[in-house]
Amino acid sequence: MNQVNNDNAANSILSNLNIANKNKDEEKTNELGQSAFLELMITQMNNQDPLSPQDNTEFIAQLAQFSSVEGLERLNSSFEDFSGTFQSNQALQASSLVGRQVTVPSETTQLFEGGIISGAVNLESSASDVQLNVYNEAGSLVSKIPLGAQPEGELAFRWDGQNMEVNGELLDWVGSEEPLPAGDYRFEMLANQNGDREQVETALSANVNSVTLGDDGQLTLNLAGIGAVNIGDVKQFN
């Protein structure tokens, strides 16, 4: 009989172990943990000695922690959804730039056949004897454009390989009888400022060939004649 009882007890233990192992394989979530905790607290309250009730402060504190953790997880989930939607919208808007032109800080860019390159420099003070030099892909100076004295501020120009426009006015200067061919060109703006002859940083227009969305969510524009440029470096969408 004892043997039978022992066998039954052993079977019961093995059965409980199987159930326990089975429960381990089940995925546990914070929501289930909170439900189990509430069930445990209610059971304990129902079975406590009414003449000597237990202090429920710790239960309440843990319950508050459960609620805080659950709230933070929901907040994180909502933020991830928002971030994913924002990146998708940003990529969609950036893809609309393909085929259009943007202006970025650069010395080089590409001239398309029949196209126009726009550029700008910022003169920190009035300058004399301002000159724009244009070099072809071989590094040869192909255009030397005198711009004379210029006031402080932005100086905007447009060049089609033959004619030059500065601040909306077409110059009398003509580089050659025929427009220069399509290709990559380097621009060098020189100016006399504060007694020194110095090169001024240029920003040039370029065609957007494609857009790349990085693993970190950063958008990169692949520009003709310039290469990859972070979208945050764009000075102007033309």
From TrEMBL:
Segments forming domain FlgD/Vpr Ig-like: 109-193
Gene3D superfamilies assigned: 2.30.30.910, 2.60.40.4070
GO biological process: bacterial-type flagellum organization
Keyword terms of this UniProt record: Bacterial flagellum biogenesis, Cell projection, Cilium, Flagellum
InterPro entries xrefs: FlgD, FlgD/Vpr_Ig-like, FLgD_Tudor
Listed Pfam families: FlgD, FlgD_ig, FLgD_tudor
The FlgD Tudor-like domain, residue ranges: 89-235
Domain of life where this protein originates: Bacteria
Family of this protein: Belongs to the FlgD family.
Function recorded in the entry: Required for flagellar hook formation. May act as a scaffolding protein.
Name the record gives this protein: Basal-body rod modification protein FlgD
Source taxonomy: Bacteria, Pseudomonadati, Pseudomonadota, Gammaproteobacteria, Cellvibrionales
